[in-house]
């Protein structure tokens, strides 16, 4: 993705890796290589020093994994589970603010 | 590279020259626009084509056109649609009846558009699947506007019957 | 429904498809099914697939795919509305969003479902063709077309001609950038003709036919510009030829090196009006004019595919309406704000507000869509129009039936009496949905409409247009808002910049930036202070826009940036 907002990271922080699923467009977060979850709480947290390599690794297999638009999202330093630092990524992680019932957790439960 | 005409692969008799390759004295060659004078200096009767960049003004070919058998237009990326207008201008403004060849990176999904703008052959980009192009050739039976192909209108409607 | 009128053979208000049109749409659906299969198989890369899906209205947004469905010239029929409701229930989350370009968007679509959704749409003669991409987009039109008292020409037949002509146009599907055409047939511009790539104003020709005034190079986005007047009195038979020439010049010379400078407005500014006109005239002279001629028989044939409403009202329809208004003040207020005069005696056009106080502008649930479809059948020949203000219109309602219509709307929470008032806010989807957005538009709209919920207060404030965009692309038309609100991103947080004095109509103007952007939690209060300042300083029945134009920005600036 060429969006500059997707590369906004500080040297010292940590990030998680995100993408959209090709088939349904849903947002996913990387749990481990080849393993993705719709819930950001499942995501692995990667120091920013290592994030570019991890993104490149994930991007190399995105067609096989059925993903598009892989990039890294900086998260608050102390928050567990991870919380993105920008409004945009918080909306991606937790759903549209105008529909509090449409959270990824609720969707997961509805399809469980 | 494979050449497509009317949805089928056909042999390509033409040699495409770059800016530096020596110009053969005989045989059908496509020269870049920068070497058009050189090409025109060959004996009359030797088939000559010219490859134009996507920002060339078609009108600059006006005097040379009677000597040209082929004009190659190009899509450096498939989203750059200037070659559609160039092909159309060649047919409509300059009444060119020779071969118009699409080069570069057009998509099979653009095939009908290419034909309806006056392109006759496509130099298929590497990795193309000819059967996808063939499917695109017969995809639609109707178009909603006139084109330089002069397809028959369906009654008094805007619709044109393809194929 | 027991009292449904017999459905006419042709839909009222829009072109009725025949077998050839349906076969074309079926081919288009199969083409997309094939493209989706190639994408999933990996033979099409995302880069290659993206423009193909966009030309079928399919975006990848923040949370999922978004499907934008074309509503040509903003007119749909009850059968189509019910299908949209069905798709909302089956494939989405039970609602749809009507847009400023008179389209409908679903926000939670799956790529793998899309070919089936497009097939369902094709069953009711609908599609998503060219609702995105660098091509000629859905042609927009006056929401009161064919009904308004002030109309000179019903522009919808020509809008349909432009829809057909631009559909999979071989030359103009890979333009430098998107291309938007609007057409009006009234001297009172309700389509923002001067804010479009091409704006057309239809008017009667001396020979009894139609001719057009042509505007070009208007637009919003990063560089808001009011379009220039290209020519008057374009004869109908030259309409397509002249548009071919206009778009060709753009395709050949429009910039492709910078996406922010690629719209035709930049070309027109670079060449100057005279320079652009000279190139268009040269192309117009060189082209095969006979090939592109639009003969009157073709116009007549397309006109014949439009159903026309049989407008008969009882002689005392107006009297009955007047009686109902006297008896019911709430109804009376709604009639004052939400109706528009009709050319036929005993009739009126009714606007259904999709702007309930505190609600999401332009959203309708599938249940509401079904109700609106039923009401359109009962009261308006099955015809529904979408407005660029994100509301709906029933164009031809009998005045003696208006009270019954209003009661039914009220029961469905669709009777907000706020058209043209402060609650009638335009908002793009913003950062809640859109991957381009910098800030959320909808929550600002919700807070404003809740704050000014009182119908009495709204009428006191009078006509005022608030328009909110979540980014510089200006889908919320903020440049044309009396009060425009633009969301900006400052280090990942939302801020809002105010512009004042924009107007979309015949007196088109671009709003001027008032001052530094405000934090999200200060924006609504600042606008409330701005409105208070207007109420203090207006004279007589002056609109907000007129007070601003008379007094300038200073006093509003003081009000907005006053610290409490």
Automatic annotation (TrEMBL), chain A:
It holds the Pfam family DUF2849. InterPro entries: DUF2849. This is DUF2849 domain-containing protein.
From TrEMBL, chain B:
InterPro entries: UCP030820. Pfam families: DUF934 (PF06073). It comes from the Bacteria. This is DUF934 domain-containing protein. It comes from Gluconacetobacter takamatsuzukensis. The lineage of its organism: Bacteria, Pseudomonadati, Pseudomonadota, Alphaproteobacteria, Acetobacterales.
Automatic annotation (TrEMBL), chain C:
Residues 132-284, 464-560 form the Nitrite/sulphite reductase 4Fe-4S domain. It comes from the Bacteria. GO terms for molecular function: 4 iron, 4 sulfur cluster binding; heme binding; metal ion binding; oxidoreductase activity. Residues 65-123, 360-412 form the Nitrite/Sulfite reductase ferredoxin-like domain. InterPro entries: NIR_SIR_4Fe-4S, NiRdtase/SiRdtase_haem-b_fer, Nit/Sulf_reduc_fer-like_dom_sf, NO2/SO3_Rdtase_4Fe4S_dom, NO2/SO3_Rdtase_4Fe4S_sf. It holds the Pfam family NIR_SIR. Keywords: 4Fe-4S, Heme, Iron, Iron-sulfur, Metal-binding, Oxidoreductase. Gene3D superfamilies: Sulfite Reductase Hemoprotein, domain 1, Sulfite Reductase Hemoprotein,Domain 2. The keyword Zinc-finger does not apply. PANTHER family: BLR3264 PROTEIN (PTHR32439:SF9), FERREDOXIN--NITRITE REDUCTASE, CHLOROPLASTIC (PTHR32439). This is Nitrite/sulfite reductase. It comes from Gluconacetobacter takamatsuzukensis.
């Amino acid at each position: 993705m060429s969006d500059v907002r997707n590369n906004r990271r500080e040297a010292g922080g940590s990030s998680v890796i995100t993408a959209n699923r090709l088939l349904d467009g849903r947002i996913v977060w990387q749990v481990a290589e080849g393993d993705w979850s719709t819930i950001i709480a499942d995501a692995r947290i990667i120091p920013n020093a290592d994030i570019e390599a991890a993104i490149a690794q994930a991007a190399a297999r995105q067609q096989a994994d059925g993903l598009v638009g892989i990039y890294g999202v900086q998260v608050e330093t102390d928050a567990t589970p991870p919380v993105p630092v920008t409004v945009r990524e918080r909306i991606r992680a937790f759903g549209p603010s105008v529909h509090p019932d449409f959270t990824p957790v609720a969707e997961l439960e509805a399809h469980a | 590279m494979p050449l497509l005409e009317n949805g089928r692969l056909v042999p390509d008799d033409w040699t495409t020259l770059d800016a530096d390759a020596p110009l053969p004295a005989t045989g059908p060659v496509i020269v870049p626009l920068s070497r058009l004078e050189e090409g025109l200096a060959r004996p009359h009767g030797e088939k000559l084509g010219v490859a134009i960049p996507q920002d060339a003004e078609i009108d600059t070919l006006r005097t040379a056109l009677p000597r040209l058998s082929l004009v190659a237009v190009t899509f450096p990326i498939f989203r750059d649609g200037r070659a559609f207008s160039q092909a159309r201008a060649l047919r409509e403004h300059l009444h060119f009846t020779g071969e118009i060849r699409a080069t570069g990176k057009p998509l099979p999904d653009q095939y009908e558009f290419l034909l309806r703008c006056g392109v006759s052959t496509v130099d298929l980009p590497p990795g193309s699947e000819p059967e996808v192009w063939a499917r695109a050739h017969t995809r639609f039976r109707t178009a909603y506007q006139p084109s330089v192909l002069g397809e028959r209108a369906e009654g008094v409607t805007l619709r044109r019957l393809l194929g | 429904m027991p009292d449904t009128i017999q459905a006419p053979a042709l839909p009222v208000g829009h072109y009725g498809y025949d077998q050839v049109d349906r076969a074309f749409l079926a081919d288009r659906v199969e083409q997309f099914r094939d493209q989706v299969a190639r994408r999933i198989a990996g033979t099409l890369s995302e880069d290659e697939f993206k423009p193909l899906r966009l030309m079928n209205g399919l975006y990848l947004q923040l949370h999922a795919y978004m499907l934008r469905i074309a509503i040509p010239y903003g007119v749909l029929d009850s059968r189509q509305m019910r299908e949209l409701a069905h798709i909302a229930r089956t494939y989405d989350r039970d609602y749809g969003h009507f847009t400023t370009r008179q389209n409908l968007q679903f926000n939670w679509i799956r790529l793998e479902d899309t070919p089936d959704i497009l097939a369902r749409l094709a069953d009711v003669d609908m599609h998503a063709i060219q609702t995105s991409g660098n091509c000629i987009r859905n042609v927009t039109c006056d929401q009161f077309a064919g009904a308004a008292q002030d109309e000179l020409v019903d522009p919808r037949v020509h809008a349909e001609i432009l829809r057909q002509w631009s559909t999979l146009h071989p030359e103009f599907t890979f333009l430098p950038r998107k291309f938007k055409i609007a057409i009006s047939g009234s001297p009172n511009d309700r389509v923002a003709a001067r804010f479009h790539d091409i704006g057309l104003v239809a008017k009667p020709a001396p020979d009894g036919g139609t001719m057009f005034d042509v505007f070009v190079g208007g637009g919003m986005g990063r560089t808001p510009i009011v379009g220039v007047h290209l020519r008057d009195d374009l004869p109908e038979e030259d309409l397509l030829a002249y548009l071919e020439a206009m778009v060709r010049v753009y395709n050949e010379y429009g910039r492709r090196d910078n996406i922010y400078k690629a719209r035709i407005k930049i070309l027109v500014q670079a060449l100057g009006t005279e320079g652009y006109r000279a190139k268009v005239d040269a192309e117009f002279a060189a082209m095969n004019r006979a090939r592109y001629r639009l003969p009157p028989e073709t116009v007549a044939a397309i006109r014949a595919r439009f159903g026309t409403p049989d407008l008969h009202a009882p002689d005392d329809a107006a009297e009955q309406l007047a009686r109902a208004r006297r008896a019911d003040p709430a109804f009376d207020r709604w009639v004052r704000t939400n109706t528009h005069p009709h050319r036929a005696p005993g009739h009126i056009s009714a606007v259904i507000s999709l702007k309930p106080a505190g609600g999401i502008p332009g959203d309708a649930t599938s249940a509401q869509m079904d109700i609106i479809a039923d009401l359109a059948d009962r009261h308006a020949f099955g015809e529904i129009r979408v407005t660029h203000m994100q509301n709906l219109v029933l164009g031809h309602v009998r005045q003696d039936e208006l009270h019954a219509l209003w009661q039914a709307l009220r029961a469905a929470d669709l009777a907000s009496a706020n058209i043209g008032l402060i609650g009638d806010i335009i908002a793009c989807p913003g950062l809640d949905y859109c991957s381009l957005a910098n800030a959320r538009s909808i929550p600002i709209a919700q807070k404003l409409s809740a704050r000014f919920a009182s119908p009495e207060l709204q009428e006191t404030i009078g006509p005022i247009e608030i328009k909110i965009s979540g980014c510089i692309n200006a889908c919320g038309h903020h440049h044309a808002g009396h009060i425009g609100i633009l969301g900006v991103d400052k280090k990942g947080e939302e801020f809002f910049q105010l512009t004042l004095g924009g107007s979309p109509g015949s007196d088109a103007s671009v709003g001027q930036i008032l001052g530094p952007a405000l934090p999200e939690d200060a924006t609504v209060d600042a606008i409330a202070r701005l409105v208070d300042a207007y109420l203090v300083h207006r004279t007589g029945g002056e609109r907000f826009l007129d007070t601003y134009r008379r007094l300038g920005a200073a006093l509003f600036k003081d009000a907005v940036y006053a610290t409490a």
